[in-house]
UniProtKB/TrEMBL annotation:
<keyword id="KW-0443">Lipid metabolism</keyword>
<dbReference type="InterPro" id="IPR029044">
    <property type="entry name" value="Nucleotide-diphossugar_trans"/>
</dbReference>
<dbReference type="GO" id="GO:0006493">
    <property type="term" value="P:protein O-linked glycosylation"/>
</dbReference>
<keyword id="KW-0732">Signal</keyword>
<keyword id="KW-1133">Transmembrane helix</keyword>
<dbReference type="GO" id="GO:0008499">
    <property type="term" value="F:N-acetyl-beta-D-glucosaminide beta-(1,3)-galactosyltransferase activity"/>
</dbReference>
<keyword id="KW-0812">Transmembrane</keyword>
<keyword id="KW-0808">Transferase</keyword>
<feature type="signal peptide">
    <location>
        <begin position="1"/>
        <end position="26"/>
    </location>
</feature>
<comment type="similarity">
    <text>Belongs to the glycosyltransferase 31 family.</text>
</comment>
<dbReference type="Pfam" id="PF01762">
    <property type="entry name" value="Galactosyl_T"/>
</dbReference>
<dbReference type="GO" id="GO:0006629">
    <property type="term" value="P:lipid metabolic process"/>
</dbReference>
<keyword id="KW-0333">Golgi apparatus</keyword>
<dbReference type="GO" id="GO:0000139">
    <property type="term" value="C:Golgi membrane"/>
</dbReference>
<comment type="pathway">
    <text>Protein modification; protein glycosylation.</text>
</comment>
<keyword id="KW-0464">Manganese</keyword>
<protein>
    <recommendedName>
        <fullName>Hexosyltransferase</fullName>
        <ecNumber>2.4.1.-</ecNumber>
    </recommendedName>
</protein>
Amino acid sequence: MPSKVSCLYLLTVVCWASALWYLSISRPTSTYVGHMSVPIRKTVKKVNNNITFTNIRTRPLNPHAFEFVINEEKKCETVTPFLVILISTTHKEFDARQAIRETWGDESTFSEVHILTIFLLGRNTDNVLNQMVEQESQIFHDIVVENFIDSYHNLTLKTMMGMRWVATFCPKAQYVMKTDSDIFVNMDNLIYKLLKPTTKPRRRYFTGYVINGGPIRDMRSKWYMSRDLYPESKYPPFCSGTGYVFSADVADLIYKTSLHTRLLHLEDVYVGLCLRKLGIHPYQNSGFNHWKMAYSLCRYRRVITVHQISPEEMHRIWNDMSSKKHLRC
Ligand SMILES: *[C@@H]1O[C@H](CO)[C@@H](O)[C@H](O)[C@H]1NC(C)=O
Ligand SMILES: *[C@@H]1O[C@H](CO)[C@@H](O)[C@H](O)[C@H]1NC(C)=O
């Protein structure tokens, strides 16, 4: 009996000791390669009783400690998509998602290239909405959710979830587009004019509507940025979050860089900060319109994205463009 007790006691001590050992190990801070949670053995010698200090200094700034609660892990097991489209969306936008599925996001439109359409969401504070999205996911299998609270302020987390998803579950895809649910995308132009499936795949490539701007300090603005969060007077060049496209290798690079980059709620600015750290320069492409543009067949034939399109407009535009393919401008 006493031997059993002391054995248990010993086990507890060993457990505790290894937990402490794990906690006190320095995490890598400047290297983006390899799995971030794997401790580096070299640094074990540095362990002392000064645990608090070591931890504060070396823990990732922005650990993204969320879990996928709805996932599509196997989407890329059988096919390697040419293009993964990540669409930032909110729970109530059921009709916007459906409009995209039935129009430009329809994966079966192109027979010679594989397109994958994925909707990104967080968790809603209203559980009924979570359940509705779960049911929608069981029907369409195109929804990915992590367990952060879904809010405008958390948009950056949604984008980082998308980067993580591509890096983890679809690393062989060639290109990725990140866009919003109120955007019309001219897929013909995106695929054949910009990405050109028959040409050599690019690496470290990033394009969209490039903005060279600085923080807005007016608190009433939707894009307000405090001096505390971002003291510099200029942002690095960034692509408007309404739609940007990149080679899939960049997803992993951005996700890993983000773990060491202080979070900002403006997702497009934040992606720009990660790109600067990576030394990747976004290419300007004026086909990415981040403003609303009245519909005309010829005008819409020239663009890649148009902003502020309602689900009804999306159907109307898509039907018009599809039925008039033979017309010249
Ligand atoms: C903890 O370690 C740091 C750096 O090694 C040192 O500056 C600091 O004084 C230490 N604190 C204590 C309480 O030992
Ligand atoms: C963002 O998500 C985190 C993690 O779920 C949550 O703690 C935080 O309250 C959210 N922020 C906002 C503004 O909703």
